[in-house]
Amino acid sequence: MKLIKAIKEEADSSQDKINKLSWFIEDSPLFRDYSDVQKALTATQLNVLIAYKHILLERVHYLEKENNETNR
Question: Which of 24, 50, 56, 67 has its CA 20 to 30 A from that of 8?
Fold first, then answer.
């Protein structure tokens, strides 16, 4: 199903962004120089990306379940 494939690709893309932003927060000297507000906003951005990826994976789960029930 094309929709499932597209959502999985978006989840993979989201994981790449999560990995990069996590690295930035944990290891970048630039992050250490951010203001407290910018640090908080960047951490919130990471949390939203993680939630977004989980939502995408839940959509895939239910689409696959619906697809399997339809094809019985």
Answer: 24
For residue 47, give the amino acid letter. Answer: N
pTM confidence score: 0.89
Range of the domain at 16: 2-70
Torsion of CA 63, 64, 66, 68, to 10 degrees: 160
Q: What is d(CA 62, CA 15) in angstroms, rounded to the nearest whole number? A: 20
Q: What is the pLDDT of residues 16-35, one digit of tens each?
A: 999 999 999 999 999 999 99
What total number of domains does the chain contain?
1
- Residue 14 CB neighbour total at 10 angstroms: 19
Nearest-angstrom CA–CA distance, 9 and 56: 10
